[in-house]
Amino acid sequence: xxxxxxxxxxxxxxxxxxxxxxxxxxxxxxxxxxxxxxxxxxxxxxxxxxxxxxxxxxxxxxxxxxxxxxxxxxxxxxxxxxxxxxxxxxxxxxxxxxxxxxxxxxxxxxxxxxxxxxxxxxxxxxxxxxxxxxxxxxxxxxxxxxxxxxxxxxxxxxxxxxxxxxxxxxxxxxxxxxxxxxxxxxx
Length: 187
Hints:
- Helix content is about 15%, strand content about 35%.
- The protein is of the alpha+beta class.
- The radius of gyration is 16 Å and the shape is globular.
């Protein structure tokens, strides 16, 4: 492992990114959705609002896509344009692992081996049109929708919900998203 990867690994571990074995048992201000139907959750989600991590700063047209594999893990593809709508296309492929006895609402998300970050599906609309993903540490949050456009009123409603869990919503920002017809191939 090179020095940069080792430093990143240490930093993520030190900052509490790892999912503990009993994370579902620890109290968290960020709730878990009562139940998540995995087949309904699969597919493309446009990232509408975030408290960004270092990768997501200056991300445009962010899309998180999920596919449930036969082994029960979730193939994830995160794509975005760096710095502008016509910026270079970036892709990451983390893998999701559903934690047992959480009604599919708590995942460990492995960006690179062996670390799994906590991924809490805190809210999902009954029609699976919008979801909010959070973390117990209140450091990152993602508001995602099945469409790239969300009204200001809806955005503010979800922003208030995120704030009610204890997040500092002054750090919560809208992700620049273009309508589908304006996008270059691959988002």
